[in-house]
Design goal:
This protein is of the alpha/beta class. The protein has eight helices and ten strands. The chain folds into two domains: about 170 residues, P-loop containing nucleotide triphosphate hydrolases (Rossmann fold, 3-Layer(aba) Sandwich); about 45 residues, no CATH class. The protein starts with a strand and ends with a helix.
């Protein structure tokens, strides 16, 4: 049987980083519905056009369409031995569909990794994120030894202060994701996570699949926790 796992965690929990390590160590790809939907922008088939229309209208993509996109992705040869689901499923209905779909292939979800992180810490991780041109990420609240940073007031006080950060030594200017610069946007994402995750975790806890991971630990410690869980499955 393949290794099919689900990553659940609030923004800043480190899902993306850990998914890379899981792919490296276990040879299974990460499936992110966010990435799949973004890829639809470059396609011209009927499913892609339907999704483009829904997104252009600012509407939510239904469970049925989301499941169709995931089903299409699961037909690719690189998922023959498993996959990491990130951002999917988001609802118990999607979870039930995924369970049924995998069962048809003689497969099942092996574990749900709940990367647990205090919401205050999640806010600090997101709001303080900065990134170098190389892609290396830093945080102004927890990596003072590597970077310098300050708040710069708008000359006319017409906008909130702007965060400026740069690498020590090279003075390379570091950039923020636009959505990380908005405290309101971060809080809304956390609120959505709180509202949608509880019923999903309840669904998987009833099946005995949830494994809590202390996402507040170091990257290396989180990786060790996950490896310990996944090695028992294999």
């Amino acid at each position: 049987m393949g290794l099919y796992i689900i990553l659940i965690g609030v923004q800043g929990a480190g899902k993306g980083v850990q998914a890379q390590f899981i792919t490296r160590d276990y040879g299974i790809p990460q499936i992110s519905t966010g990435d799949l939907f973004r890829a639809m922008k470059t396609r011209t088939d009927a499913l892609a056009q339907e999704i483009q229309r829904i997104m252009a209208e600012g509407k939510l993509i239904s469970d049925d369409i989301t499941n169709r996109v995931v089903e299409e992705r699961l037909q690719q040869p690189d998922v023959a031995h498993g996959a990491i689901f990130d951002g999917y499923p988001r609802t118990p209905d999607q979870a039930a569909w995924l369970e049924q779909h995998l069962a048809k292939k003689g497969e099942k979800i092996g574990a749900v990794l709940y990367m647990k992180l205090d919401f205050y810490d999640a806010f600090r991780r997101a709001f303080g994120r900065v990134r170098a041109a190389s892609g290396d990420a830093f945080n102004v609240y927890s990596q003072a030894e590597a970077i310098e940073w300050k708040w710069v007031d708008h000359p006319e006080k017409a906008h909130p202060p702007r965060l400026e950060a740069w690498l020590k030594g090279s003075n390379e200017k570091l950039e923020r994701r636009p959505d990380d610069a908005s405290a309101d946007a971060i809080i809304k994402r956390i609120d959505i996570f709180r509202a949608t995750t509880a019923p999903l975790l309840d669904y998987y806890r009833a099946k005995g699949l949830v494994h809590e991971v202390d996402a507040a630990a170091s990257i290396e410690a989180v990786t060790d926790q996950i490896k310990s869980i996944l090695d028992t499955l294999r």
